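Below is one such protein, fold included:
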Amino acid sequence: MRVLLDTNIIIHREASKVVNQDIGVLFNWLDRLQFIKYVHPLTAEELSRNTNTEMVSTMQLKLASYQPLKTEAPLHQIVKDVSSKIDTLPNDLNDTKLLNEVFCDRVDILISEDKKIHKKAAMLGISERVFRIETFLEKIIAENPELVNYKVLAVEKAYFGSIDLQDPFFDSFKEDYIGFEKWFNQKSNETVYVCYNNNVLSAFLYIKVEDDTETYGDITPMFERKKRLKIGTFKVTSNGLKLGERFLKIIFDNAIIAKVQEIYVTIFDKSQEQTRLIELLEDWGFNLHGIKSTSSGEEKVYVRDFNKDNVNSENPKLTFPRLSKTSNVFIVPIRPEYHTELLPDSILQNEAPNDFIANKAHRNALSKVYVSHSRERGLAPGDIIVFYRTGGYYKGVATTIGIVESIKQNIKDEEELITLCHKRTVLKEENLREFWNRYPNYKPFIVNFLYAFSLQKRPNLEKLIEFGAISSVDEVPRGFKKIEREHFEKIANYSFKK
């Protein structure tokens, strides 16, 4: 595998100070899998322009450990067309030249943290070959489970006072925030969400509910009076396992329980790690509101409207987990052996939690994949899915509500099916191949959905028949089945009634 590394990856790998803790994990995987690490001539050129001559000399020496591209592919006309629409700066064109090497098959993949590169990759139709560090690690872990040696990886609640403040995990907070250690110690009796990977702290989340009497004199523009959930401290360093999405689910769940009108976070954008977190938040509906002035400097303020009537059916991520009141509703079966793997928060009481650990990307992800041969294929973004765990009259239960994000039909071959599904489905590659070839004249399609709610009280098949969602024991759906809104409301009222 020929892997082209963008300049930003080289800089973070070879810098004297670690600014992205996932770099080591990335290079460990590249070496273990014996991938060839390439650099473009433009990288050496870009590094040579640094005003720090000592750093330039050091970097030039370190570049010798990478394979240089000895020739450059002529810029393809399609790439030129995309470049003319997007590129405005000289560096933009340099990035396009890196993409051109992928487009022309001179290299297999490109790894870059540059947002504009990924936008152009999507326009060129090569997104599946252009990765961020995080998405590359997801791909590798999904494809090489036998090489992954993760111990228990689960989110847990802890007290501030039980966490080692001297852990290197907190170094970036200490650098960014004056008085961080004092603030941390004052919170000793308050709870946080944490995740450890092989006994190393990998994720940390502190949230706080603020009522409408809170004052925000240091935020410009000033906040209106509302009940809010504040994301006080949020950091994820363990990549490849979708922990960021796992923690977003915790944030949204707490926002629902607290019945807040908004969620907000204040964050610097000094580092690549912070930029990546901002991009994740933006993907899930957070918008830049303004600036917070502090003794440590000016932070950006990002806000997420959490009004229950605010629903975006075309892009449900932006208003997740709110459900449309007008969209169609479908019920679909999922077999027991796949159920908890794909929908971990919907684990049944008779399943031992110790036998289940969230150490796979498809478990932690909020955005998931369901592969189906269903004859009913008329789903659309914003539609609601009720997942029914099969098991008969008394043991079969509805457990989960999902929101359709997108549909992918007319899949050309099994390789495309595997590419589209990896990381977000419970099905292994051999399962997907078997699934593709099961009905030669009737190929599967993909439903990308968002994992919204686990039902608190779960109606069994007997109840589902009573509610009208399923007509009889003999009519349990084998694929997607559209149900009436009134039937869905009966399920929801039964499941969430206090």
The domain at 323-496 is CATH 3.10.590.10 (ph1033 like fold). The longest strand covers residues 397-408. The chain is about 35% helix and 25% strand.
